[in-house]
Amino acid sequence: MLPRRVAVQALLALASGCWLGTRPAWAGAQREEPLADAVRTALSSAIANQAPPVPEFTQTEARLKYLRWLGVQSQRLMSKKPDWQSRKEFLQTVWYESKRAGLDTALVLGLIQVESNFRKFAVSSAGARGYMQVMPFWTRQLADGDASRLFHMQTNLRFGCVILRHYIDLENGDLFFALGRYNGSRGRSPYPDAVLSAKRHWEVDDRSLS
Length: 210
Hints:
The chain is built from 9 helices and no strands. The model is unreliable at 1-26 (pLDDT under 50). It starts with 7 loop residues before the first helix and ends with a helix. The chain has a single domain (8-198), classed as Lysozyme. Helix 7 (175-183) crosses helix 8 (190-202). By secondary structure, it is an all-alpha fold. It is globular, with a radius of gyration of 16 Å.
């Protein structure tokens, strides 16, 4: 197993609730584990997609609900991503990849907040990369094993969501232990507590979207 490293500055920042400030990335050391064929396929398929995915809806109400969600989250994210187009493409991809992996979008946004503070090119002391701080060894699932691909937005979000889903399944739905696995600190509370606290900032009451 790789050594577990969590930046002291990040712990202090999270303890004080200063998530908007500049700080090092959180990522510890995820453990490389055997993956099912379906998981490997999900990781590899993101590489071929160069443009942000465009959500498709069969019902008008579902589309309107998504657009309202996009509007709410766009306002919340403006201080981190001032450019509207970049913000839209990021949120669009988070929505798509979280839904694809069967994850709560607020959970994914909370994890990104804790892991990278929404910095696309964040790199942790352990070498994890991008928005969701994915460890480079996961790129061994790719044909060329090019870890620089983890700075591509959809690739990073696809990997992060698929890996988190993988850990949730391994832990039989226990989110506390799954988040600990993601950070390489299974069984310890600071990281899961930080992510679940950040998640609350991104929650949207479904009634407000109707």
